[in-house]
């Protein structure tokens, strides 16, 4: 392969262009980190919390944003980069970061079970809430956990106001007892859970991953996607007409951008066109949600 023939692709990914079609499609479908300024700022904020000196009242962070706009991806990247477990002194299992998805309801016992399952520790589901709480706190201390992350925190809004206060008081107790910071993430509605008690709101900073404007940063982000798509011909996705189409169909959400371009790239491989045309993007307009629902047909 002559690398000069694929200058539209980052040199790291050029070898993928000559793979069989099936392998190129599999490569496109793989999860992939695209760094951008807001995501990097959020990673830095979370790293700062991870490195804070223990104290009774630790700072906490709420990350909010529209659905499919990168919150969970940033969390996974943070855990991959800073939260990998390791063995210390050949005997102690250290887990710097615990990251879980919030239980479907604001239930204290379900929260502890989710955490213990994340740690792959045995537990008695029939045990009391107090027993599970003690086991979880003991495990955190033994594993030297420095940061707890709970994604999809808006799930707690399914409960009553009383249940929401109880689960937030539980989280406050854990942070005080363990002297570790907490990062929670969810949709914009998640802010409401902080207002169940003025004390909760005072403990959290709020970081928003807003939808993208159709500007230079969005253009650079789309260009970054093209740099790893294993297509033999350049697609020139940063062309003004294509950028406008991509922004309109994706509604400025990075998850929608990824799916749109992945679908178009897979079609380009299957059809043999080997590039993403303006018409190909238009043909994927069904990816645009209609009242929150994607209409594949009709």
Automatic annotation (TrEMBL):
InterPro entries on file: ExeA_AAA_ATPase_DNA-bind, P-loop_NTPase, TniB
SUPFAM superfamilies listed in its UniProt record: P-loop containing nucleoside triphosphate hydrolases (SSF52540)
Name of protein: AAA+ ATPase domain-containing protein
Origin species: Acinetobacter genomosp. 15BJ
């Amino acid at each position: 392969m002559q690398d000069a023939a694929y200058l539209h692709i980052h040199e790291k990914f050029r070898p993928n262009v000559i793979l069989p079609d099936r392998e190129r499609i599999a490569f496109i479908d793989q999860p992939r980190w695209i760094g951008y300024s807001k995501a990097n700022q959020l990673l830095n904020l979370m790293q700062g919390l991870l490195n804070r000196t223990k104290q009774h009242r630790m700072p906490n962070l709420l990350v909010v944003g529209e659905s499919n706009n990168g919150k969970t991806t940033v969390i996974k990247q943070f855990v991959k980069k800073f939260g990998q477990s390791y063995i210390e002194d050949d005997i102690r299992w250290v887990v710097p970061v615990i990251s879980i998805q919030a239980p479907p309801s604001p239930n204290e016992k379900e929260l502890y079970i989710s955490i213990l399952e994340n740690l792959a520790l045995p537990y008695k589901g029939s045990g009391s809430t107090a027993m599970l709480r003690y086991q979880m706190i003991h495990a955190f201390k033994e594993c030297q956990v420095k940061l707890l992350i709970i994604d999809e925190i808006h799930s707690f809004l399914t409960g009553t106001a009383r249940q929401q206060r109880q689960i937030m008081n539980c989280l406050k107790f854990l942070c005080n007892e363990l002297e570790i910071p907490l990062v929670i993430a969810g949709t914009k509605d998640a802010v409401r859970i902080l207002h169940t008690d003025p004390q909760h709101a005072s403990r959290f900073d709020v970081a928003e991953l807003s939808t993208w404007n159709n500007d230079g940063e969005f253009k650079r982000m789309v260009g970054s996607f093209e740099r790893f798509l294993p297509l033999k011909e350049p697609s020139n996705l940063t062309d003004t007409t294509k950028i406008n189409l991509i922004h309109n169909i994706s509604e400025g959400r990075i998850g929608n951008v990824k799916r749109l371009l992945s679908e178009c790239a897979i079609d380009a491989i299957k059809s043999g066109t080997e590039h993403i045309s303006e018409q190909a993007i238009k043909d994927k307009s069904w990816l645009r949600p209609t009242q929150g629902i994607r209409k594949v047909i009709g």
